[in-house]
Amino acid sequence: MSRLRPGRWLIAVPMLVLALATIYPLLFTANVAMKTRRDYILDRFALTDRLRWDNIETAWSSVGMSRYVVNSLIVVSSSVLLLLLLGSMAGFALSQVRFRGSRALFLGCLAGLFVPFQVIMVPLARIMADTALIDTYPGLVLVYVAQFLPFTVFLMTSYYRSIPPEIIDAARIDGNSLYGVYRRIMLPLGTPALLSVGILDALFCWNDVLMSLVMMPSADQRTLMVGVTSLRGQYSADVPTFASGVLIAALPVLLVYLFLQRQIADGVAAGSTKG
């Protein structure tokens, strides 16, 4: 049997510690969610003796987590569709269409990556209030699109630059317009990148708290992550119910990471592609 080289131990041990540090909070939260308030007060670290779904049912129905999930699904799905449409079109134009100022426009999109939301939060909130978009689905969708579009354009441009320009030239010779080239050639070829970027954008929007908290102040319009943070104050004495809400919010993200790991990794790697 070949022994593990010391160099590999230097990588394996920290990664194992990191994995345990990531998994333990989720297991602890699931264990607390299955306890009664009395059991949690007596011993918060003890394993539950049986599975109890009462706390999860309470968080889902009585607390309003079901409404928060619906709000998040509407906002995230709409935002991702717009981001993919605009990002793929902009990526095609910046990578394959020759026009004056394309490089400056691409650099401007890159600059948008370095503008945090906290910098534009106050003026953006005033603009949204003046246009009656506060506390509406379209308002939050527009904010998400504006915030994450530079990232989407950057990755799609990097991916489309790897496609040989001869394919575009051949399609134009066959009589396709620019829109025809985009619809018939670039969209099918860009499906892997669109899937990867779409997953990343969905995770960004799903996990957001600050933008949703500013744009959706009313309780009925809260997204899931904002709803979970509000549980901390309302159910500070009922920790198992709060843990159930956290578990509901974490489960979709966990499933995405478990089943779509390769697509997520491809999306992260797409930005390093050179044209």
From TrEMBL:
Topology class, membrane: Multi-pass membrane protein
Cellular location(s): Cell membrane
Residues spanning the signal sequence: none
Keyword Protein biosynthesis annotated: no
InterPro entries: MetI-like, MetI-like_sf
Pfam families reported for this sequence: BPD_transp_1 (PF00528)
Record's GO cellular component terms: plasma membrane
Domain ABC transmembrane type-1: 69-260
Family from the record: Belongs to the binding-protein-dependent transport system permease family.
Protein name: Sugar ABC transporter permease
Taxon lineage: Bacteria, Bacillati, Actinomycetota, Actinomycetes, Micromonosporales
